[in-house]
Amino acid sequence: MKTVILCGGLGTRLAEETQIKPKPMVEIGGRPILWHIMKSYERHGFRDFTLALGYKGDVIKDYFLNYHARLSDLTVHLKTGNVNYLNPMAEDWHVSLIDTGANSMTGGRLLRLKPHLHSSGAFMVTYGDGVSDVDMEALLAFHRAHGKIATVTAVRPSARFGGMHIGNSQVINFKEKPQSGEGWINGGFFVFEPSIFDYLENDATVLEQSPLESLVRDGQLMAYEHSGYWQCMDTIRDRDALQSLWESGQAPWMKG
Q1: 74-102 mean pLDDT
Q2: 131 class by beta-carbon count within 10 Å (0-12 exposed, 13-18 middle, 19+ buried)
Q3: Is 158 a residue whose pLDDT tops 60?
Q4: Closest to 49 in 3D by CA, of 57, 41, 61, 59
Q5: Above pLDDT 70, what percent of the chain?
Q6: DSSP character for 122?
Q7: How far is Cα 69 from Cα 60, in angstroms, rounded to an integer?
Q8: What does the pLDDT look like over 37-83, one tens digit per residue?
Q9: Which residues lie across from 126 on neighbouring strands?
Q10: How many CB atoms lie within 10 A of CB 233?
Q11: Which of 20, 50, 183, 184 is the most exposed place for a label (fewest CB within 10 A)?
Q12: Where is 77: in which H helix or E strand?
């Protein structure tokens, strides 16, 4: 199954870092948060990734093009240009890096991936800035059991994110970044059927607005309620908190 990671945003609240790199490349423990997200999927058997690139996407391309060289000792044969990797450590991942436009919104980026996803059945989608110990296999099993178009992982951190009202695991109201209120929020880690593309219009489509709201009206959005660890990296403070967890050896997202 393919896993889409949305990697194209500007990350303006992390400008100290994102002036020179895209947000998914901000490091935790010497590795991009993107790597941490991919590892969380790998632990549950998901190794086929499609990265939706945008802002400074070339930095992400360079990272994966030089992945072997970064991790391994190597011998370079200067005359031929051949490189021997002496102790290759790379993960067994298939990574597609797709430019989805410099200014596309989240739904627009997903729509641009339609040629790569439409014939592959259900697929995972998440953001390139959040880590969690969510059980991806259980998430997928929940999605397959309810038979709807979409599943969103619901989590319970602060109320500055998109709020949801849930009844019998079905989302009955979705509002991105409400002004007040507490409870379940959009934690990302979606599962979509290919018919999600019917809800996406163009590059300006924001996934968290009309598409998810329309899915709610159609009774097609279900919530996988996750009470474990979840944290997005919106600010320098978030980055530092994640770094502290990593340094303590207690990073919850590495134990999912």
Answers
A1: 91
A2: buried
A3: no
A4: 41
A5: 94
A6: S
A7: 15
A8: 999 999 999 999 999 999 999 999 999 999 988 888 999 999 999 99
A9: 5
A10: 27
A11: 20
A12: strand 74-77
Residue 207: C-alpha distances to residues 13, 130, 152, 240 (Å)? 20, 17, 12, 28
What is the full DSSP assignment across 135-190? -HHHHHHHHHHH--SEEEEEE-S-TTS-EEEEETTEEEEEESS-SS--S-EE---E
Neighbours of 146 (CB within 10 A): 14
Q: Residue-wise over 7-21: b if at least 16 C-beta within 10 A, else e?
A: bbbebeebeebbeeb
Token digits of residue 81: 């240009």
Q: Is the pLDDT of residue 179 over 50?
A: no
Q: Are 192 and 235 in contact (CB under 8 A)?
A: no
Average pLDDT over residues 198-214: 96
CATH topology classification for 2-249: Spore Coat Polysaccharide Biosynthesis Protein SpsA; Chain A (3.90.550)
Q: What is the pTM of this model?
A: 0.88
Domain boundaries, the chain: 2-249
pLDDT (tens digit per residue) in 209-226: 999 999 999 999 999 999
* Residue among 188, 246, 201, 194 at smallest CA distance from 27: 246
**pLDDT at res. 222:** 96
Is there a contact between 154 and 184 (Cβ–Cβ < 8 Å)? yes
Whole-angstrom distance, CA of residue 155 vs CA of residue 20: 31
Tens digit of pLDDT for each residue in 121-148?
A: 999 999 999 999 999 999 999 999 999 9
Ordered DSSP codes for 89-101: -----EEEEEE--
